[in-house]
């Protein structure tokens, strides 16, 4: 496999923690001259962190709103995939949300986001959430639920759009058949639809019924949850073919 695309939370972590298995995974991917591209709903600032501390060249952050890369000089460069007007509209809507819905809990990293914002839905009552979602809907703001946040944005953002743009402009020589995608939540659905080779780690089971497009392979058992599932599956794939 030329590129391993993967969600981050719940897919490369376990119970919210980044463990030793993540480093084993990086080593495995590097030893096979493959590349890991993380596709996450986390903020652009997280993208800087990932590129600074791990052997990665590109990450796609904010649910596909921005591509962050390390160039040949080692500098971090960014490409926004939404317009400046959409970014300004989002700022205005977020301000109204803060003023009109004091029970809405914005994620602590919302200040470090550019193309989207995030809501800590686990800290809110369902009735307050429903009001907030109605407000977003009325203001033509899109939103989707990951396993940690409700992300919202203006314009067209999806993991699919981010990855599709990335493959066209950054790695045009790579076919989607030469890639694998790992995920665990509803915001990975556009990836399950797009890639022929997709894997859901075993903790995806709880939301599987909600997906119209499901991963091709669904791992089972506690030993295959999160990063353990990615590592076990990928090791098998990479070792079973000399072409990889
Ligand atoms: Mg996830």
Descriptive terms for the model:
single chain; 244 residues; alpha/beta; Rossmann fold; Hypothetical Protein Ta0175, Chain: A, domain 2; eight-stranded mixed beta sheet; three-stranded antiparallel beta sheet; 7 helices; 34% helix; 18% strand; binds magnesium ion
Describe it for me?
It is a single chain. The chain has 244 residues and is α/β, with parallel strands linked by helices. It folds into two domains: 3-81 and 157-240, Rossmann fold (3-Layer(aba) Sandwich); 84-153, Hypothetical Protein Ta0175, Chain: A, domain 2. The protein contains seven helices and eleven strands. It has an eight-stranded mixed β-sheet, sandwiched between helices. Helix 1 packs parallel to helix 7. The chain is globular. It starts with a strand and ends with a helix. The model has no long low-confidence stretch (mean pLDDT 94). Residues 7, 9-11, 146-147, 184-185 line the site of magnesium ion. Magnesium ion is lined by residues 7, 9-11, 146-147, 184-185.
